[in-house]
Amino acid sequence: MLADLPILSLITFSPLLGILILLFLPKHRSRWLKVTAITATILPLLLSLWLYADYNGTKGGKAYEENATWLDVSLNKEAVGDVGSYQFELQYHMGIDGLSMPLLLLTAIVGVMAALASVHVKKRWKSFYIWFLLLEIGMLGVFLARDVFLFFVFFEMTLIPMFFLIGIWGYMNREKAANKFLLYNGIGSAIMLIAFVILVATAGFRAEQLPEKQQTNLSYSGSYEVITTNLTKADSYVNMPSGQAQGQENPFYLSERMRWVIFLLLLIAFGIKLPIFPFHTWMLGVHTEAPPSVVMIHSGVLLKMGAYGLLRFGVFMFPGVAEDWKVAIAILGVINILYGAILAIVQKEFKLVLAYSSISHMGIVLLGIASLNEIGLHGAIIQLISHGLISALLFLIVGSIYERTGSTELKDLGGLARSMPFISGILLTAGMASLGLPGLSGFIGEFLSLLGLFDSQRVVTGIAVLGVILTAVYVLRSILGITFGATPEKLAGVRDARLIEAVPMITLLAFIVLIGVYPAVLTEPMKHGFDTLLQQLSEKAGR
């Protein structure tokens, strides 16, 4: 029954209902605005959980695909002094598989929790929630789009809302942070667009049969050229050797050099989003200057779009090039791990500790991708989901602490376990998850990523393990310093978590524990998500 509904479109655009209601609500009615926005984020969560329960990994999500022609323009080449015909088409193509299903759930969960955390917002509630819901539409669309143009539209749709959410509702240096965010991500988007244009202009061609009466003066006998941005099946021909190109579905092929160029462009574009060192500096400003609910979205979901794009359009479409680049990707991952961990150790501000921690944990994701085997790839996805939940929880706690103390400097905090035992307990548990304690989600993702890489790159894996030790150092140093020790006099009377804060804290922690003790909740839908990629890598190794 679910497959008969446009469930993917319903999930993506359901927040629009909230936006429409918000437009008609008075701007001074803060309670109405907050209830409407929170309810609007619950809709995609409920639909996503329904989809997850109905999802059949064996089918790879084919039953839920939505495909329609968005734009269809024909051009007679005689008009430009040539023969034959061109047809340019854009497709509205949505799909779900083992790679996007877990990330879709993550987005829906973090979206609701961040909406609840937005109670800290003190001004312009109506504008805030409209931008917030537009941002959620973009994030959901990114993980469901299968047409490269549609993916690009949703990807860019996340930039403008984030720019305003940081620049208007952030802290003292919010405008500088917002401008730097837009500059870096704009450059990354431009590079991504160049790669997509090259793909569409080459691999985006296909030959199709025309009715017999139209088969005259054509470039290809009995065919005409269609330029499409729907590259779902592009992996079947972008890696096609020139000698095999003739007579296949696509008469064009990408040369080895061109494949390398496109892969490098995609690595840089999505590496800025991930972020990969040295493209990380813009992220530090976002983590320190954006409001907590926005940082929950940014750290919990937006960084994951970089890894997803690299897998979807880099590794999946160019497995041969990814095989050639796997050592370089692993080295970049180790640099991320050690650089982020070492700098996190010396930070004096808790938000910067968490920012550099995110850089370090994204290095683990790169190691899983570099493994190019099922164990490592599963580890990379679990690490993405785990870090999304943990970082969202930690920044939720940061917002609660800042609201009560007016500071996130480590020297100003201490002994909070006495005055805020509930928040301190949640903070300690989230910290244990971040450092990879078995039984919590952080362990399984790190373990599988390192295990997958160990088979082919043992030296790199050994060096990366040092990051696990350093993670324990900065997590214990910062979190134990905040929760234990002497309590400053001004913090002695601060209150513990309110219900609207406790609910998202408990919910996020519950998912962290669930994944830690029952990782099959993620690995089941991922079971067949990498079959095509692994088969292509196996064929390449067999040649």
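Above is the first protein from milestone M3; the second protein from the same milestone is given next.
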Amino acid sequence: MKVTHIPFQKTGFFSKMMHNYLEKNENLKPFYNNFPDIQGFYNQIEEKSISFCLQTRITLLNTLKVQYQNLAISENTADNLAYLQYKNTFTITTGHQLNLFTGPLYFLYKIISTINLCEELSEKFPDKNFVPIYWMATEDHDFDEINYFNFKGKKVSWNRKDGGAVGRFSTVGLEEVFKVFSAHLGNSKNAIFLKNLFSEAYLQNDNLAAATRFIANELFGKDGLVIVDGNDKELKKLLIPFIKDDLINETSFTEVSKTITDLENDYKIQVNPRNINLFYLEKNSRERIIFENNLYKINNTNFQFSREEILNEVENHPEKFSPNVLLRPLYQEVILPNLCYIGGGGEIAYWMQLKGFFNKVEIPFPILLLRNSVQVMSSKQSKKMEKLFISNDEIFLNQYELISQKVLDNSEIEIQFDEKKIFLQKQFEELKKVAKKTDVSFLNAVNAQEKKHLNGLANLEKRLLKAEKKRQQDLVQKITELQNELLPNQSLEERQRNFSEYYLEYGESFIEVLKKSLKPLQLEFTILEL
């Protein structure tokens, strides 16, 4: 095993906002609270200690006991559940959709980042307890985003009728998916583990939430991971004042809209708020709540409520109100003694739209931490990179750019087109000095000729590069094949591959190596050679 790191910025896969956040750019400081370093956590602990009450802890603990009642619990998870009742206990949270068989690889990276950060904080603050939380996105209804995973370049899909919160979906029909997946695995020890994990999760649990909880617990229960399902009446009772506020005052819409105005000139906006950022949840539906003609209407249904009726509905049935992507973070921070949210670049970007809203409703805004990202490569692939003189930074270049650079580096022709362009521009600068003393039409003619000659030179450069690529076809093919192996579909492999590919080859040691290698507060991209 060999672990190296490069800046996130060098990969080309992270946004300007993430670059600026990691660099502590002054422009972003109004949009987050404490930075993810030890001093930031010290400040966050102080802030959360004051705001989080004992009764919420008791409700949280009692609810989680019910959620865990049909699951085998490790000693570490049992300890962490018990710790939640004490005021010196805090959580570190990540969240993820209920992707079939965990979906893309970064599911693992999110959770391991969360576990490792808790362990690091326990060393820095020995008088405190830190509990890693995986928040299951059981109320999502984007089934098309979660109904498949990729295995060795093939898509393993679950086709069924869509409708409602995905956590409630029956697992009926996954027997066929299991048969298809099993056929690709073989009969090795690691293959048998994967088969058992899939079958026990999906064929012995009634719904997708229970199946996903089982998998996460099997993989990370020994590390003390605590899994939370927010689609719960007792937990949503704690959100009642904020649900009412959103229905009556539209606070989230107002405050997030202000933040977007401040952000949009410099950064891409991830999520646009609605006037009401809540859904109404029924057994087989999750529909937006719309305020129209002094009535609260449930989109695509005949349901409607007066103000008094919907407030009574919130009091009596809070479980029927489902936060959207902008209110879910608030819900999490209301019910958890949370210090930090760990997420991908897109997630951190939409969290940054929420700081003003959190301030308005007087809930501490958590630390935001960009999760660990990993490029796994074999020693064989690493040796190929060395032979092709490709560095860790360069492998992430756009493929056209990478091939062009390496072809020119390997070329026997030493014509420097940049020098030729500079020389040509200098010649035309002399002509422009003369032209300025004459008629404007002559100056225009000089500018046109300069553009024509520079374009001609650029075309010659492209033709030379094309000819060199043809001459060095073997090199081009080797670079293309290697980069396609490492970056499937010209994307980070963590967004494409499923963990089962590596587990099949390396077994439990793959997760153990990840756990040893990922350093959440290092704030760098990890390259892991196995």
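Note on the second protein: The two ends are 5 Å apart (CA to CA).
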